[in-house]
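To: structure desk
From: M.T.
Subject: fold request, one chain
Message: Could you run this one when you get a chance? Sequence is below, nothing fancy, just the single chain.
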Amino acid sequence: MASRFRRGTFIAALTTTALIPLTVSASAATADGHLHWGIRASFNSYTNGATYVGDGATRTDNGFDFELTDVTFDKESKRTEAQFNGTILYRKYCQDASQPMTSVCDLDLRFEDPKVVLSPAESYLEAHVSSKQYLKNEIYAPKEAVKIATLKPSSATFTNEGGRVSWENIASTLTEEGNRMFSEFYSVGEGLDPVALNYVGEGATFVESDITLRTQTWNSHADYDDGVHQLFDTGTGVLVGMPDGQGYALIDNNLKEIAALPAQTGNRGLAAYDSNHKVLYYVDETDRAELKAVDITDSGFGTPRVAATASHDIYAVGYHPGTDVIAAIVPEDFSARTATLLSGSNGTFTEAPLPTGEQLFGDTRLDAEPGTIWANDFAWKNQAELLPMKDGTFLYNGSPEPYFEGEELPTKSLLYSIKPDATEVTERATFMKGSRYTSQSTYLDGLSTDGVHIYRFNSNPNPSAAAAQSLIYDPDTRDVKAESEPTFGVLPGWAAVGFDADGTPIQLNGSTGDLNWLQQGSFTVTKSFPLPNGRETTNVTNNTFLVRKDGTMFVPTLDESRGDWKEHYVLRRIDVASEDTPAISEEDNLAKLRKRALAIPQKKLDDATSALAADPTNAELQRDVAIAQAELDIATAKLDNDADKLAAAQQALAKAQAGQPESGKPKPENPKPENTQPNKPKPENPKPENTQPNKPKPENPKPENTQPNKPKPENPKPEKPESEKSSKPESMSASATVAWIVPILTLLAALGSVGYAVIHGMIPGLKLPKLPF
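Reply: Done. Structure tokens follow.
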């Protein structure tokens, strides 16, 4: 089971008062709804939960529900403001633990009456808070409500069914004020729990994204912190290697588990998938010298067998789809100063020696006590990557720590190139000199590559300790060169890196919970997507994720909101729209133009019909319907080049405008009466008086804040993917233009000058004839 305690001793406090009533001019709904938010599940787990929950709030597992008091929605701006009731009070580490509500406590934190704002311009959650700052003689208690969390609706699932509006899985991150609430124990921008709210009333989504988060999830049989989870793409699904003796699971593309294979798996991820023959090769803890194999079908697992037996325990396993070779690194003893390479294909394996430290490093002399060369058994829960490169070799990241002559500290994170088919031992493995960097105290133990470009990193979420580096592989020298030196504080929280079909690196950030698309060879973010429960995915180094060529991604998240003190490994599916947009035929364009041309008269008819349905005997409304129907018929007849229908529709329009509906009923003399009903007042929803006993308030006045303001992290606006950018082809050929003239002229006649402008703007590059009007 994962430990509940990770951050060290943390104490903060938070107190809240009532919010200012909503004043947005919008349609108010009945106060029927709830907000669900756990604030930060790891904080709840660490503190053993809130001391008091009430005043409209209730406890749910490792989170809280707040009751709705008022909600408004502005249709024009698509802005939702939802006010909720509820008080959450944490009073911990008290002088009298038996009386936390009256005793002096180190942790004294109150959060009250949250308000959610969702709009295209800004989305956030605010509340009234008060927090006794840890180890400081001050109270953070602003008079007004402050923004605690920045909300990211692009991750959310929105529904509006039966009059009930629902937002689920809204990712949230910590604001500067929210961090003050936590005594600045975390960092601005760190992920918080996802937000969910629902209410009866009006609402609409405003999110437009080429990225979609599926609602389905898959839960691992092992906890997130138990060790490395490995993901392998079977095409029809995903094969998951689970740590802590939980074996392997086969799930389909909709994240439904199909079958499970029992195996005594360890915590470092010792498996590789032969995608050419659909065979899983793996090592379990019963005998780490045995390389086992099992066939994978769309419906399950075959019978496991021993594919090969190495001379010693296997430390790393990899598969190269280009050469169809399985390779394994086999250190000869605990010191890992010598090793062999077990490799083979189609069930036939051989074992050959790998170079000694002296052979690897050549002129760079090793110390008399050389340290580890081929492995590091102290790299607990850390996968030793053995990854395929484009030239048929493997890239090996075994976390060795050799001591070189005259140096007091070991050198870390050296990389080796492995060539299984080499006949000379010195060619079978070579030291990549470009992987050595000057800092001897920095680990870069996570690594990912697309076969040419390499990103390596550590998973430390602390900006002062987080480091990453971009490398590029040179197949001629079997070496790497740095595209950047190890950079500190860049995108802290490297959980994993994947590459899309175009070679674009994608970072899973375990601090903010975001997926960040990076500019190749750099750390510049070009696009981001917030991942609910994506934070703390750094707890295990390089928990891999899958990126398919079609844009489908399978990404791990960490859920600790279930109240069982566990950190659940939850796999999510994300669909990214392909940038290869299929060409649109001329027929499709004509259909689109026709729909656009008829949209205005059709809407006019729909509105008139709706009005008549509310007052069926109203003759004026009957006339409006007749006029709208005739105008729609005229536009349709012009598009269809139907002279008979056009004449009939024009005659019907003339009759309707003259007040003579086709039914022959005379036009009523009495005009439509004005509405004499007074405007209904907006119902007030004052906050009910608190019937709970008075809660203690901090006695110490809030001193002036002597801390310097923290700069907010820059979040450059991501570029739109190519699929969303306007593509303006060159002018169409003469023959194509001629083919368009007749239907275009017909449309222009139906729409007039306004229609001309609409059509010309809708299809870039389209040649239109000059207008005769």
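Reply (cont.): The helical segments are 41-47, 176-181, 357-361, 425-428, 586-614, 619-640, 643-657, 734-762. Let me know if you need anything else for the meeting.
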